[in-house]
User: What shape does this take?
Amino acid sequence: MPENLEAGCVAESDADLDAVVARVSAGVLETMFFEEAVETECQHAWLQSAITTELHFNGSHDGCFFLSVSPEAARAIAAGFLGLDAEELADGQGAQVILELTNILCGAIMSHLWPESSLSLDSPLQVVPEQVPSCTMHRCFQLPDGPVAIFIHLHSGVQS
Assistant: This one.
């Protein structure tokens, strides 16, 4: 388990955490959503127009998982997941699929970070990008149709 994640604020260079988030995220996006995710350097100008979701988790670890997806990537992800062409998507379907992706990614990443822990996941909610705490671990990925960012924030007083 990455030691720096326990402190609430994660060092940007935690190689173990990077590897878990990159491997698990790429695997989920590829197998369930038919999208290739490549870890990339962060450039956050696009976040203001992103579909951003938040999912609280608690139990042996308490915190929040955030996912931001560019509108173009959200359409491609939704189309792949639903087996539709992007033009066939109804209004709101992209955001609904991103909520489901949030749930899937959070569960997969947490079970790899803390396989022996007991966690409960709340239902994901769509939020505005400004609601992502400034003190979070985050990683950015480039998909063929746009960027994706994953943020993990642990609340202080986290148990080991």
